[in-house]
Design goal:
Bound molecules: zinc ion
Number of domains: 3
CATH architecture of the largest domain: 2-Layer Sandwich
Number of helices: 11
Strand order of the largest sheet: 9-8-7-10-11
Helix content: 40-55%
CATH topology of the largest domain: Nucleotidyltransferase, domain 5
Order of helices and strands: HHHEEEEHEEEEEHHEHHHEEEHH
Strand content: 15-25%
Structural class: alpha+beta
Radius of gyration: 26 Å
Largest sheet: 5 strands, mixed
Number of strands: 13
């Protein structure tokens, strides 16, 4: 259906989305004897890939009307799908993924759609509403950099640093090891067309990704725990600015930054924080590693990891960055801390903008 719609669009480029809908809705249902929802899905799909004019991945989405989970007489779970007037039941393998799905359903998640991919794997999309997270009086600032995560916890009322630590130093070391091994395999597989090297290279890439993601989830758990213990709102740097910063540095430097993938880290952090009722805000990261947290003076960008200021303050540059992230966020919440001086007081209404 998608290919046919692409052909129609190619021959009549002026057709709008609505025109196509009118054109194919009834004819396709008759021609293919298929559920009307799937015709609409095909049309949407074709519309989304109309510019490239071809399909790279075949994905079929079944919405709520087209799927249900049932049990056989022997109590085995099946996925029941409606493709036309009939339903087909697909047995479900009761593996780890299925158990995780059941756990989520027990925790109040709801399945909104089932997605079938080309290799006949089925995925579910889940949805759950969470209450607006509470704003806490202290701030926990995280600086994501090439080497590790620098974390600082600050109490804006007493102007005291409650905690200073680094997380994930092992990640960049292990990533470097993976990269060295991959470079070697890359050489073999390109030079000798070695299929064994190619297989190994793919396996290694998958293992590397799994390792990094597992470690990121672990670090996120540690951060959430720390935020809870210290009644802190979590503050990170805004990705928009980070991207701009990335573009400026050379290729080698860019590779370094990706050793702790910021995008995935932020996704994991916001995902988990939302479930735990903790607020995450993002501030502008400009000059965070070049400004003195004590006197506020800006230093020139230095290639060294150590920050020294005329006022006598000195610290690791990543620590300086995480402190400045805390200070920037706490400057945005004076009214909150004034209203609720005692640590632990939670305020429901956030009063600052996300832009910082
Ligand atoms: Zn200073």
């Amino acid at each position: 259906m998608v290919l046919e719609i692409l052909e129609i669009k190619k021959n009549n480029p002026n057709l709008s989305r609505k025109d196509i809908q009118k054109l194919v809705y009834n004819s396709f249902r008759e021609k293919y004897n298929i559920a009307s929802q799937l015709v609409i899905e095909a049309k949407t799909y074709a519309w989304n890939v109309r510019r490239q004019g071809r399909i790279d991945r075949i994905v079929v989405r079944f919405d709520k009307r087209l799927f249900s989970f049932k049990k056989t007489k022997r109590k085995n779970p099946v996925l029941s799908l409606r493709v036309n007037s009939e339903r087909i039941a697909i047995p479900i393998k009761q593996d780890g993924a299925y158990k995780r799905l059941l756990e989520h359903l027990q925790q109040g998640w709801e399945i909104t759609s089932v997605i079938m991919t080309k290799d006949l794997k089925f995925y579910t999309t889940l949805k759950k509403e969470f209450p607006e997270p509470k704003v806490m009086p202290n701030v926990l600032g995280i600086d994501v950099n090439a080497r590790w995560l620098a974390v600082s916890v600050y109490n804006p009322r007493t102007k005291r640093w409650l905690k200073q630590l680094y997380l994930g130093k092992d990640i960049s070391l292990k990533q470097m090891k993976y990269e060295r091994r991959r470079a070697k395999l890359q050489h073999y597989k390109d030079k000798f067309f070695d299929s064994k090297a190619r297989r190994k290279f793919r396996m290694l890439s998958g293992r590397q990704r799994n390792y990094v993601r597992t470690r990121i989830w672990q670090m996120v758990s540690e951060i959430i725990k720390l935020a809870k213990e210290n009644y802190a709102t979590i503050v990170i740097e805004d990705i928009k600015h980070l991207r701009a910063r990335k573009g400026k540095i050379n290729k080698k430097g860019r590779k370094k930054i990706n050793r702790i993938p910021y995008g995935f880290f932020r996704f994991a952090l916001e995902h988990k924080a939302m479930q735990e009722g903790i607020k995450v805000i993002a501030v502008n990261p400009k000059y965070t590693s070049q400004t003195c947290p004590r006197c506020g003076k800006r230093r020139k960008a230095s290639q060294y990891n150590y920050f020294r200021c005329e006022c006598g303050f000195e610290a690791n540059r990543d620590r300086v960055a995480s402190q400045n992230i805390c200070l920037r966020a706490s400057r945005l919440l004076p009214s909150i801390t004034a209203q609720h001086p005692e640590a632990g007081a939670a305020v429901n209404q956030p009063v600052w903008s996300y832009e910082g």
